[in-house]
Amino acid sequence: MTRVQIARYAGAVGDFNPIHVDEEFARAAGLPSVIAHGPLTLTLVIDALISQLGTGTLRRFDARLRAPVLPGDVLTVVPTGDVVEIRTGAGKVVATANVVVENP
């Protein structure tokens, strides 16, 4: 996740909440840095899942955000049966999702 991705998403959806765009505000709010918008994180995860499906079709994606995603976090999608974990490079789980894929 990059600051540029976060800023572009903020501009695209008009969500300029300072926890996403103002470093000083985010720190004053108790965060280590600005954080990515939850929907941005989930959009990137869905994109990664779809690219891995081959001929399968993503039928359900019910997600729960578990922790903030920070600039510099590299996200990995880790399938474990019907549940997918989204982890940072350090192994921190930032989201989980129940996924249903239909194969032809």
From TrEMBL:
InterPro entries: Fatty_acid_synthase (IPR003965), HotDog_dom_sf (IPR029069), MaoC-like_dom (IPR002539)
Recorded superkingdom: Bacteria
UniProt GO MF annotations: fatty acid synthase activity
GO cellular component, one term: fatty acid synthase complex
Gene Ontology biological process terms from the UniProt entry: fatty acid biosynthetic process
Domain MaoC-like residue range list: 1-98
Database matches in PANTHER family: (3R)-HYDROXYACYL-ACP DEHYDRATASE SUBUNIT HADB, 3-HYDROXYACYL-THIOESTER DEHYDRATASE HTDX-RELATED
Family label: Belongs to the enoyl-CoA hydratase/isomerase family.
Protein name stated in the entry: MaoC like domain protein
Organism encoding this protein: Mycobacterium intracellulare 1956
